[in-house]
């Protein structure tokens, strides 16, 4: 009788081979990894991204509209595009506010020094976005990171990056207003980021 192997049963006991960004890109170029698989490289591990539910999609669109209107062309807004954090991490955040012009990124992905804000929209991925990605963004020196929690209609704001993680974590509910660290004159209503009357049961992917 063959017993099933529990998920991640090997990872605590066996050393895992970590991949570099160069190797990860080579696998994509050679068709070993396809775009349809929807993966990202986190600390040397190739991670499969979950399918996005409609509340996630609509929340990201609303967030994009709010930030596009507020920024008035002062920055680029990249959606679900790769960013370069380190030789072993190339995540694809839901939204990134980036300095410069489009052609600046013809041959390279944005790096931490030109990134003003990273945002992940979370429904079924809240723990990973807060803890795993939050640590990677902090270690890379991303100055500000938001996790938009769809089911609870709130925004986790991470600031003051440190190699051990963000020193500041503040949660804002949908009655509050929020200003990005690099754009203190902007005042965003958090309620505008979410579909109206969204129930927690509707937010699951």
Description:
- The protein has 205 residues and is an alpha+beta fold.
- The protein contains three helices and ten strands.
- The protein has helices at 21-29, 54-71, 126-140; strands at 39-42, 45-48, 76-79, 95-98, 115-122, 144-149, 154-159, 168-173, 177-178, 188-189.
- A six-stranded mixed sheet has the order 3-4-5-6-7-8, with helices on both faces. A two-stranded antiparallel ribbon has the order 1-2. A two-stranded antiparallel ribbon has the order 9-10.
- The two termini are 35 Å apart.
Low-confidence stretches: 1-6, 200-205
Q: How far apart lie the N and C ends? A: 35 Å
- Could you tell me the radius of gyration in angstroms? 18 Å
Order of helices and strands: HEEHEEEHEEEEE
SS content category: alpha+beta
Summary of the model, kept short:
This protein is of the alpha+beta class and 205 residues long.
Itemize the secondary structure elements and their pairings:
Blueprint: H1 21-29, E1 39-42, E2 45-48, H2 54-71, E3 76-79, E4 95-98, E5 115-122, H3 126-140, E6 144-149, E7 154-159, E8 168-173, E9 177-178, E10 188-189
Parallel strand pairs: 5-6
Antiparallel strand pairs: 1-2, 3-4, 4-5, 6-7, 7-8, 9-10
Feature tags:
205 residues, alpha+beta, six-stranded mixed beta sheet, two-stranded antiparallel sheet, 22% strand
